[in-house]
Write a structure and sequence with these properties.
By secondary structure, this protein is mainly alpha-helical. It contains four helices and no strands.
């Protein structure tokens, strides 16, 4: 994935909920645990899993639409 593609996907995440991209980046890029992310955002752990799942879904949707 190119940087410009990630910026487009991140913008889609931010448009839906700014926490989506932040949770994804914290987990996948910086290695935070779900518990740590939940504490940072003052959310439940299941909600953090939902945010990360939504981030992945937005990425899949982008790739399907843009081959």
């Amino acid at each position: 994935m190119t940087k410009s593609e990630y910026e487009i996907i991140k913008a889609a995440m931010d448009a839906e909920d700014i926490r989506i991209a932040k949770a994804f980046e914290m987990k996948e890029l910086f290695g935070f645990s779900v518990r740590e992310i939940a504490a940072e955002f003052q959310l439940s752990e299941p909600r953090v899993y939902q945010l990360i799942a939504r981030a992945k879904a937005i990425g899949r949707e982008y790739r399907q639409e843009n081959g």
